Amino acid sequence: MTLNYLTLYHSGELLERVRAAYGRLAACDICPHDCGVNRLRGELGICGAGAHPAIASANVHNGEEPPISGSRGSGTIFLTGCSLKCRFCQNFPISQMGNGEVITTKVLADRMLKLQQRGVHNINLVTPTHYVPQILAALYLAIPLGFRLPLVWNSSGYEKVDALALLDGVVDVFLPDMKYADNGTAERISSAPGYADINRSAVAEMLRQVGHLELDDEGLAVKGLIIRHLVLPGGLAETRKTLSWIAGNLGTATHISLMRQYFPAHLAVGMPVLGRKLTDDEYDEALEALEEFDLDNGWVQD
User: For binding [4Fe-4S] cluster, which residues are annotated in this chain's numbering (predicted)?
Assistant: First the structure.
């Protein structure tokens, strides 16, 4: 397996990216909110993160898509905070209430190495967008200690192309959400202005960096893009529009994980539309759209 981040490390490029990424924290513009706060001095933006990484857990996870979990599991690190404020977030204690432990980048590197020792197939960074500098720094510290696993970027997809450029050759598998096709809906439900346009530019950049999904002889993800789309009740996700855009702009070879596990959580409880579960008919319509646009690669849920 070729790990491009080793080349970046030995050339000195990875260290330069660590420095460039940390420089952006002085007036933070890592995510599309462009909060402008000085995180290096402990100021907090919308994501709730400061200068140091914070994690809620680092453990072996077997519930991801088959090429990610494999037979030995994915080394999943849940990072605290988020640049979105989804009213229905099922992980809201971590993403919005700040549950987690503030650690150093050295400790984050140690957690990655310990997961590697447990035999996981990859390191799966969940909600990592606001920690680009800290993750790059942790990788830089882990490599000379023997870290050699693929990195999975498991994100909301609300990301800037110039921030993603710092990950070119670092991330092996991008696993972004494509949540909404309408900017107004995204802002109303997830406090994410311009989400649809920003998200589409982001996933196009991810595809440019890693290409379509590639598997090894064991069926494990070596590199590539997997898009997750959560079907929402009442058509709020506008699934058909998103799938049509994927087929037309990324290609029908794109791997899609079409998820139906929505249930009302956090602020969605009691809300109109969001306050109910997804119906079988609603998910069936999403499945029909997959077929209509010849998107045959990926996974659906029973």
Answer: 82, 86, 89
- Cα(83)–Cα(51) distance, integer angstroms: 15
What's the pLDDT at 143? 98
> Could you tell me if 5 and 170 are in contact, meaning their C-beta atoms sit under 8 angstroms apart?
yes
pLDDT score of 218? 95
**Which range marks the domain in which residue 198 is found?**
4-300
Q: What is the pLDDT of residue 302?
A: 83
At 177, list the tokens.
């959400």
Q: Are 65 and 299 in contact (CB under 8 A)?
A: yes
pLDDT score, position 146: 98
Please state, for a pLDDT cut of 90, what percent of the chain lies above it.
Answer: 99
47 annotated to a ligand binding site: no
Low-confidence ranges of the chain (pLDDT < 50): none
Q: Is 35 marked as a binding-site residue? A: no
299 forms beta bridges with 257
Model confidence pLDDT, tens digit, residues 191-207: 999 999 999 999 999 99
- 82 labelled binding-site residue: yes
At 191, list the tokens. 């406090």
b/e for 45-68, b at 16 or more Cβ within 10 A?
Answer: bbbbbbbebbbbbbebbeebbebb
Which CATH number characterizes residue 205's domain?
3.20.20.70
Three-state DSSP state, 173: strand
What does 91-146 look like in DSSP terms, one character per residue?
THHHHTS--SEE--HHHHHHHHHHHHHTT-S-EEEES-GGGHHHHHHHHHHHGGGT
Instruction: Count how many domains the chain has.
Output: 1
> At 238, which helix (H) or strand (E)?
none
Find tokens 């080793």 and name the residue.
6
- Distance separating the N- and C-terminal Cα atoms of the chain: 33
